[in-house]
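FW: tagging you since you asked about this chain on Friday. Here's the raw sequence from the shared folder, copied in full. Didn't touch anything.
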Amino acid sequence: MNPGDGAAGRSITTLSSREVYRNHWMRVREDEILRSNGHKGIYGVVEKDDAAIILPIDQGLVWLVEQYRYTIGERALELPQGGWEMEVADPEDLARGELQEETGLRAGKMISLGSLWIAYGYAKQLQHVFLATELSAAERSPDEEEHDLAVRPVPVEEFEQMMVDGRIRDNCTVSAWGLYLLWKARQR
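HL: got it, structure written out here
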């Protein structure tokens, strides 16, 4: 069995599904399931529309954002990322919008590095990863939720050290950097 086999690779059947919560940003459903071993269970699923994470690099600097993350009760450093709480036809439009909204930067060049599932053990949300270069200043327009967001450009070496020593612990940021390094190695 190969990953991505779809229905042929399923070992869980959904018996029933009900939405238990919804707000502007997400939906939560509870599914009654039957495993291939005959045991029934319950599966909770958080559903969110696609998101984008942007790796803005210019003149040896990586542009990070720092904001308070309620779920962990602390300020966190990460790459600019987010979604628009609706389906987006073109992920690059989303990435460009999030970059400008959070950092006040425009990218002259945007390169898709791939896409990743965010926490698919309990959530259904796809995140598109983009490299942004040829950066220029634009008007910043953060959401209400981003009222305390601070923009921090840091040298690439410091950015890497921040991931190594735990100052950056956002899995999406670390994963995006990994995709970038793979892409960069293939450019030679």
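FW: The CA atoms of residues 37 and 132 lie 47 Å apart.
HL: agreed, and The two ends are 34 Å apart (CA to CA).
FW: great, closing this out.
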